[in-house]
Automatic annotation (TrEMBL):
Full protein name: Uncharacterized protein
Coiled coil regions, renumbered to chain: none
NCBIfam families for this protein: PRK05409.1
Superkingdom in the source lineage: Bacteria
The species this protein was found in: Gimesia panareensis
Amino acid sequence: MTEPRLGHENLGLGVGLRTVHFSHILEHQPEVDWFEIISENFMDSAGRPRHVLEQIAERYPIVMHGVSLSIGSSDPLNRDYLQKLKTLAETVNARWISDHVCWTGIAGRNTHDLLPIPYNEATLTYIVERIRMVQEILERPLILENPSSYLEFQDSTMSESEFVCRMAEEADCGLLLDVNNVYVSSVNHEFDPVEYVQSIPAERVVQCHLAGHTNCGTHLIDTHNGHVVNPVWNLFQLMHQRTGGVATLLEWDADIPPFPVVHEEVLKARQYMDENLVIPEQTPPAAAQADSEAIPHPASFIAAEFE
């Protein structure tokens, strides 16, 4: 096991906290290592969801994961939003706060989608400065996740992996390595996901995400529904070997099954922590293997619970 990254320990295997599982968790107090919450679901809540969260936080470690920081937006940083994040983190003793390398809106309007950014020097300089500002306001390191994406900018001058690596080093922030997102984007943009994971600075990785996705034949979409596929487990094993193990979480946000099913899925990670395990190579997704004959746009999916 490597040393805690940026002061953060390996919390073990956790799942995303979702309202449909509230009653089960309160009644059965399952042996899950930790929970991750969608920050925006609780920042302005004073009702039952917040009350339940505070009860759960008394027993389990909590990590906050946001979808509206919009670190890549040209809008000024929303200091009111950041103060709410900071207050919630203090209330539930959040182990860390994370969000995505993306933008989510413009002119004060939120698209409720994680939109891609151009990977070039100008964008890098801009985002690094904003990360530093956010970390000063939150008074803690920010953890940022690699996004899944469905298009690229012509004026990008570097790969996503190079951008993320340089961003983490120059801003002195942590990384949330979503291996499902790596796989989804690698299929959509035809790059090598193994090279991507190998290039990420292991000492910067604080957390890992696992999830299912939807194969639309011509592309994959990060829908967070269904089980984790073998190629993603393969990337997880590589990540585990490179980092020595980090807090790992399963996201399941659509067609959510009973809690034991979700918990059982993340516990599969234990078998891929075996250094000697050899996972068979998987053939790339093909149109004939698609989950659906339709080829929908990503916007037609709702990939995350938001109340």
